[in-house]
Design the sequence.
């Protein structure tokens, strides 16, 4: 038989020996399970893929929040630019623009064929649904127009 290690006491009774054997079996079972888990490449790959997927989802959420913030800032800047431009227009120009718009609407109803009006109505609905984008574009156009007017 083999000699027990010097740092472990020997069992004094058969019952104590059985307990030591059972304890050693549990430890060995735990060690085998840990080694099997490390050797299971497929499971480890799935775990890593899930971890990377979660990280990507968090990053996408952060980027989405930042994009929404920037879009809101752009809309606010565009609205402010439009407001400044409209504030500088004299009242007679505003009144004349309203009158011309009314006349244009009347001519539109009388002269434009129905398919064209339907397509235009569809475009107007899309513009209404994407107001922020339209306001940003209008603000940019207004700013460019004001800058060109100042230079000329």
Sequence:
């Amino acid at each position: 038989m083999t000699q027990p290690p010097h740092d472990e006491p020997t069992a004094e009774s058969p019952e104590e020996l059985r307990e030591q054997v059972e304890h050693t079996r549990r430890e060995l079972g735990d060690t085998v399970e840990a080694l099997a888990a490390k050797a299971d490449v497929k499971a480890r790959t799935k775990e890593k893929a899930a971890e990377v997927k979660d990280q990507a989802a968090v990053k996408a959420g952060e980027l989405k929040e930042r994009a929404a913030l920037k879009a809101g800032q752009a809309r606010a800047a565009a609205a402010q630019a439009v407001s400044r431009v409209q504030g500088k227009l004299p009242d007679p120009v505003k009144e004349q623009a309203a009158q011309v718009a009314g006349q244009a609407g009347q001519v539109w109803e009388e002269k434009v064929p129905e398919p064209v009006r339907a397509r235009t109505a569809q475009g107007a609905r899309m513009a209404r649904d994407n107001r922020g984008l339209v306001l940003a574009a209008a603000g940019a156009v207004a700013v460019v127009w004001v800058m060109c007017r100042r230079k000329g």
The longest helix spans residues 41-88. The two ends are 107 Å apart (CA to CA). The CA atoms of residues 113 and 142 lie 31 Å apart. The chain is about 85% helix and 0% strand.
